[in-house]
Write a structure and sequence with these properties.
alpha/beta, Rossmann fold
């Protein structure tokens, strides 16, 4: 079972990759769309992964709030109560996502040791049941 699914817009791929790599270094199983294989049905595979994921991180940017794919993935995660929203650029969030506490990663330096990732990891641990590292 996948621990984390990352939803993002293609224009934000570099930051999504950095977050995926940082989380993988902590031992989490991270899935994002680079794992899709040729010939797979995009929608079926994405929905199956979100159905099995323990947490879904949605990276909010002006591009992602305009994406039907990202909004669909975020809605799916919200219905399952596994959504972890994070800004990587400040943007006004659409309803109902504006009702959730959203982690501000706009100042994240892109490294796995930045303290700003601590909130993201704590949110993940809350959902997947991993104890906090001491």
């Amino acid at each position: 079972m996948t621990d984390i699914f990352i939803s993002y817009k293609r224009e934000d791929r570099q930051k999504a990759r950095a977050i995926a790599e940082a989380l993988a270094k902590t031992g989490l199983d991270v899935w994002w769309d680079i794992e899709l294989l040729p010939g797979q049905k995009f929608t079926d595979e994405i929905n199956a992964v979100i159905d099995q994921a323990k947490a879904v991180i949605v990276l909010w940017t002006p591009q992602s709030i305009a994406s039907h794919w990202v909004l669909s993935e975020a809605t799916h995660a919200l219905r399952r109560d596994i959504l972890i929203p994070a800004w990587i650029e400040h943007v006004e969030l659409p309803v109902p996502f504006n009702t959730l506490h959203t982690l501000d990663l706009t100042e994240w330096n892109g490294t796995p040791v930045d303290r700003l990732l601590e909130g993201l990891i704590a949110g993940i641990q809350r959902l997947i049941g991993q104890p906090k590292e001491s």
